[in-house]
Design goal:
The chain is built from 10 helices and 13 strands. It is an alpha/beta fold. It folds into 2 domains: about 130 residues, Rossmann fold; about 150 residues, Rossmann fold (3-Layer(aba) Sandwich), CATH 3.40.50. Strands 6, 7, 8, 9, 10, 11 and 13 form a 7-stranded mixed β-sheet that branches. A 6-stranded parallel β-sheet has the order 2-1-3-4-5-12, sandwiched between helices. Helix 6 links the parallel strand 6 and strand 7.
Amino acid sequence: MRSSMKLQYLIPLALILAGCGSKDQVASTPDSTTAPSSAKKVLKVALLTPGPVSDAGWSALAYEGLQGIKQDLGAEVSQQEATDAKIKDAMRTYAQKDYDLVFGHGFEYNKPGVELAKDFPKTVFISSSGGETAPNAGAFRFYLEQSCYLAGYVAGKLSKTGAVGSVAVQNYPSIVSTLKAYEAGARAANPKIKIIPTSYFGTEGDVAKAKQATESVLGQGADFVIHQANAAAQGVFEACKEKHAFAFGTNANQNDNPSGIVIASAVIVAKPAFLELAKKVQDGTYKGEVSLFGMDKGAIDFVFNPKLSTQVPADVQKAVDDLKAKIKSGALVVPKDNF
């Protein structure tokens, strides 16, 4: 009878102990299908440029924007030059590598990005200029016309020959629009100013051709020249120095160019635009559109060269400051083409 009583107590105890052992075993084996992941997906962003990021201008400023994304968002970034037929191949390669965002820095990247967007719905393609869009593709536009207008105003006020001109690599709509704004600013300062037609030299990065194009403009009487020459800008500056003319820097602040003739720069500050767009892609709120970034968002500026400040009378500097304030407030709307 005593054996029977012991057995009655021992059996439940054994079951309890077995249950505890089973519970410990389950707890020590992680369930990979239900365990929450603490790892946050790293944003992958690529940049395609028409020239080297060492050009101290158009491509360099975009690279600074890309580095801003890397620093502020912890993104994985990549950059390469790609022009003409190589544009689509480069975009496709990045999309196949699961990049979240591909920036194409220029008007020429807009159409290829929109065309590829339908094949890679998880990648967003954004060009800096252009008018075509898709659900995961679009463009943003730096309102560089604002600072080019101010450059034209300065040229119109200070020109001693009564003629100003411009030099550019290609007649892309985005480039043409900025040069029109420059001409409008010159006419606002001096209705009688002579505008020398833009000289296009046609080859990306060709310093010699850029210099020849500038010499042509100077030979027609211009003593102030603005450029959209990208990596070939040095040719513009060299020609102006030899002919004792002044030049304007564009896209990046080029006031420190060794030529010593850059009187002011029409500047793009890329980080605000690049960062805003990248954040939208990161949080999944980006929708194909064309965005505009100007002085009011801190993306555009006009900067006098302090080393040449004696060449710009105080009243002209004040007039430029007043115009800048009106542009920021919206009281002055600088003309720009729609494309």
